[in-house]
């Protein structure tokens, strides 16, 4: 993990020794301390943003790509998920004197997110478990439901609705709750493999594959 100066691009620090994976670092406050959390190839790690110091580290099974960004659940815990048979884990970060400790709260094989980021919405987790949408209760890791085959696509929360970019190129708009999903709209954006996450800026929705990109201007139905 490296830090650069915004002003002139000089390297401020480089820290950590575990090879990186595909997950992006995030800035979060855990156990009362601001930190950068990154999901590496074989660890999830918290770094001090000022100097890169490793505050804590937790081992995860290695040998598979880790892509989904960690989800901050509250001021002391986070959720990580990986595909390839691994599943999801809730971790609790605690301060013990000048040191930090990491404890597994629960682990489950019922949310194996291969590519897509997991969504926390109204106190429940939503993600693609090997391509099927699931809802997990973060309190105990129990699955509330598993429905809809979308392949290894991507998820985006837009207000109170979940936008699913399916692996085969369709876009699906859903209402989701612990009781289940309700499909509101569906349309075909591409006709081929789509792994890239969508981006929403105001009324403009940007989508792309490895071959093409498109921007939709969205309007409200009357």
Itemize the secondary structure elements and their pairings.
Layout: E1 2-4, E2 11-14, E3 26-30, E4 33-39, E5 43-47, E6 54-59, E7 71-72, E8 77-82, E9 87-96, E10 99-108, E11 119-121, E12 124-129, E13 132-136, E14 143-149, E15 154-158, E16 161-165, E17 170-177, E18 180-188, E19 199-201, E20 204-208, E21 213-217
Antiparallel strand pairs: 1-2, 3-4, 4-5, 5-6, 7-8, 8-9, 9-10, 11-12, 12-13, 13-14, 15-16, 16-17, 17-18, 19-20, 20-21
Task: Give the class from helix and strand content and strand pairing.
Answer: mainly beta
Approximately how much helix is present in the residues?
under 10%
SS summary, helix count: 0
Low-confidence stretches: none
**What about the largest sheet?**
4 strands, antiparallel
Q: Which percent band covers the strand fraction?
A: over 45%
Distance between the termini: 48 Å
Rg over alpha carbons? 18 Å
Gross geometry: globular
The number of distinct β-strands equals: 21
Biggest sheet: strand arrangement: 3-4-5-6
Strand and helix order? EEEEEEEEEEEEEEEEEEEEE
**Mean of residue pLDDT values:** 95
């Amino acid at each position: 993990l490296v830090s650069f100066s915004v002003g002139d691009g000089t390297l401020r620090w480089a820290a950590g020794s575990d090879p990186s994976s595909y997950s992006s670092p995030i800035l979060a406050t855990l156990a009362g301390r601001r930190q950068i959390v990154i999901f590496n190839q074989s660890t999830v790690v918290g770094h001090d943003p000022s100097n890169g110091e490793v505050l804590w580290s937790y081992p995860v099974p290695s040998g598979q790509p880790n892509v989904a960004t960690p989800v901050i659940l509250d001021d002391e815990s986070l959720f990580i998920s990986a595909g390839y048979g691994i599943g999801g884990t809730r971790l609790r970060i605690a301060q013990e004197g000048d040191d930090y400790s990491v404890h597994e709260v629960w682990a489950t094989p019922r949310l194996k997110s291969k590519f897509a980021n997991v969504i926390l919405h109204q106190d429940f987790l939503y993600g693609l478990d090997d391509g099927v949408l699931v809802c997990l209760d973060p309190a105990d890791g129990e699955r509330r439901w598993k429905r809809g085959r979308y392949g290894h696509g991507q998820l985006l929360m837009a207000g109170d609705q979940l936008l699913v970019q399916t692996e085969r190129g369709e876009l699906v708009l859903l209402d989701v709750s612990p009781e289940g999903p309700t499909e509101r709209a569906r349309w075909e954006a591409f006709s081929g493999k789509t792994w890239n996450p969508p981006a929403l800026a105001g009324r403009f929705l940007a989508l792309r594959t490895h071959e093409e990109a498109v921007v939709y201007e969205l309007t409200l139905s009357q």
